[in-house]
Write a structure and sequence with these properties.
23% of the residues lie in helices and 28% in strands. The relative contact order is 0.25. The chain is globular and about 55 Å long. The chain is α+β, with helices and mostly antiparallel strands.
Length: 329
């Protein structure tokens, strides 16, 4: 009798855990979700560092730099081309969100950088007819095989650079190693070339300062600092504008440096590589859509009051099923 009760309950538990598994922690938040102020026409408007936009995208990632999550934010600004009325100028601005306790410009045993694959962004999209509403994962934009191959390639190449090269800019060398040698599974890289990859240091003297946020704070975490890490400008016709404005940008976040976990002095940890796929959401498309980091390592789950973590969701789902099981006996 007991075995008949256990089977369907635990089957349901498996289904819930499967559905809330890897994709549950992969989310993009839009302007509606982070309470961008309303403009006089009851729309949304966010002004950050002299950039005015209503379309943003925010994703979160766990790293070894902090026990709290970091965030990536894309804010898009579109204006008429002053040299050609029939064309538009689109600025795609990328902000890093960090907890106040994390001082990236101070010396540390760990360094970090980011690579923004802007050369393919206008060719990448998620499922759906409306590019502003399309959501998905890196696997949807690039293919699951490409994601695995690219992360593995970045780990391997960065390890070689750290161990063999004394250069002061290992992330620049990583861009060179990746750009014209894209995995064959990554068909978005035409002829094996990713095109424009923006390389930015995130730590040390090259860390960029925080920006003024005003009454708009386009990040999911309360009290976080924002720094403008990278910007990319493109001109386009009206026909090309949606693909450029709402294109999906793959972002490799790389963390590397000396080991601090009991390893011999000078030992090098395996680089921590995370791949995020970020795009802005149109204002009417709100509320936590799937997309986000594919991680090569894990870190402590943060304490997020406003946005529940995937770990908490899984825990409560499992607890609910187990409770049903015991009370049904």
């Amino acid at each position: 009798m007991r075995s008949k009760a256990v089977s369907p309950i635990f089957a349901n538990l498996c289904i819930i855990l499967f559905c809330l598994g890897p994709s549950a922690g992969a989310q993009i938040f839009g302007c509606d979700d982070v309470d961008c102020p309303k403009d006089p026409y009851n729309g949304r408007k966010c002004v950050v560092d002299n950039t005015t936009t209503s379309e943003i995208g925010v994703s979160r990632l766990n790293t070894s730099l902090s026990t709290q999550q970091l965030t990536w934010t894309i804010a898009v600004q579109v204006a008429n081309d002053p040299r050609n009325d029939s064309r538009s100028i689109t600025d795609r601005n990328f902000f890093l969100g960090t907890p106040p306790s994390l001082k990236l410009n101070q010396s540390s045993t760990k360094d970090a950088c980011a690579l923004f694959f802007e050369g393919v962004s206008s060719n990448l999209s998620f499922v759906g007819n409306d590019p502003g509403k399309g959501v998905g994962t890196c696997a949807d934009a690039l293919s699951a095989e490409c994601v695995d191959d690219l992360v593995s390639q970045a780990e391997t190449e960065m390890s070689k650079i750290i161990e063999e090269d004394e250069a002061s800019s290992p992330c620049v060398n990583l861009e060179t190693a990746l750009n014209e040698k894209a995995p064959k599974s990554c068909i978005a890289a035409r002829d094996g070339n990713w095109g424009t990859i923006l390389v930015r240091e995130l730590t040390g003297p090259s860390a960029v300062p925080n920006v003024e946020q005003g009454d708009c704070r386009p990040t999911t975490e309360e009290g976080y600092n924002l720094s403008l890490v990278a910007s990319y400008r493109r001109a386009s016709s009206d026909d090309d504008l949606p693909a450029i404005k709402f294109g999906v940008t793959p972002i490799l976040t790389i963390i590397y440096g000396d080991s601090t976990d009991g390893a011999p002095a000078g030992a090098i940890n395996k680089p921590e590589v995370q791949l995020s796929c970020l795009k802005p959401l149109s204002v009417e498309n709100s509320a936590a859509k799937t997309s986000g980091p594919t991680e090569s390592s894990t870190s402590d789950e943060p304490n997020n009051a406003s946005f529940p973590s995937p770990t908490n969701v899984l825990f409560f789902a499992a607890a609910a099923i187990v409770s049903i099981f015991f009370f049904s006996q």
